[in-house]
Amino acid sequence: MAPQHAAAAPQQAEQEGSLLHRRLRFDQLESWSRSQQSWAPFVVPPARLYVVNLWSPHCLPCVNEFPTFRKLVEGWRNSPAVKFLFVADPPGDTSRQEVAAFWMRSLRALPAVDPVRTTTAELRQNLETELMPITLLVDEQLVVRQAFVGGIGTRSIGTAIERMLRISLAQVPQGARHARNP
C-alpha cells in the first residue's frame, strides 16, 4: 500500500493528537552503517528524547524536508539528551538497497546520521496511519509526546524539543539529576 500524504490543516491537529501516548518499539528496526556499508539490528542509543522521522525515498515531502532536518541535527549534535532517528518506512516501500543507495548518493543534503529502516509493518500498525511524513517526539520510555504530521515546513520542532527536554528534566528526582547528567 502506498503511503498517504498528510491532509489539510483542520484534520492535521486531530491526526497528530491521535498519535500521542502510543508506546513504540524499536526492536523491528535495522540501521545502515555508512562506515561498514552494511545493515545491522538497531541498538537504541540512550537519550531523554528521540526525534523520530518516518520517511520514504519515494515521498517527495519527506525528501524535501531533509535539509531542515540536517540543520536541526547539526544544532543538537552536542546534546547527548537528543537522538534523531530517520526511519525509512513502510518496509514494502523501502528496500535495504534503496535506502542505502538514496542515503549514500544524497549525503550533502541529508542529516549527518545513519538511516534506520523498519523490517515489519508493526510500527505503522501501532500508529494506525499510513500518512507521510511523520515526525514524532518520543520520550525515553519510547512514548510519543508530540507528533508532526506532514512536512515540517516552518513548524518549530526545535522549540518543541527544548520544551520536551525541560519537562523531562523537571520530572527527574533531584538526587538522580547528577547521576544522569555527569
Characterise this structure:
By secondary structure, the chain is of the alpha/beta class. Helix content is 35%, strand content 23%. The protein contains seven helices and nine strands, in the order βαβββααβαβαβββαα. The protein has a seven-stranded mixed beta sheet. The protein has a two-stranded parallel sheet with strand order 1-7. The longest helix is centred in the last third of the chain and has 15 residues, at 157-171. The protein is globular.
Q: Which characteristics define this entry?
A:
seven-stranded mixed β-sheet; two-stranded parallel sheet; alpha/beta; 182 residues; Glutaredoxin
Q: Could you provide a short overview of the structure?
A:
With 182 residues, the chain is an alpha/beta fold. The chain is built from seven helices and nine strands.
The oligomeric state is: single chain
SSE topology string: EHEEEHHEHEHEEEHH
The main sheet comes to:
7 strands, mixed
Physical arrangement of strands within the biggest beta sheet: 3-2-6-5-4-8-9
- CATH superfamily caption: Glutaredoxin
Distance between the termini: 47 Å
CATH topology, what is it called?
Glutaredoxin
Range of strand content: 15-25%
- What Rg do the Cα atoms give? 16 Å
Instruction: Work out the helix count.
Output: 7
The percentage helix is 25-40%
In CATH, the architecture is 3-Layer(aba) Sandwich
Globally, the shape reads globular
Please, how many domains?
Answer: 1
SS content category = alpha/beta
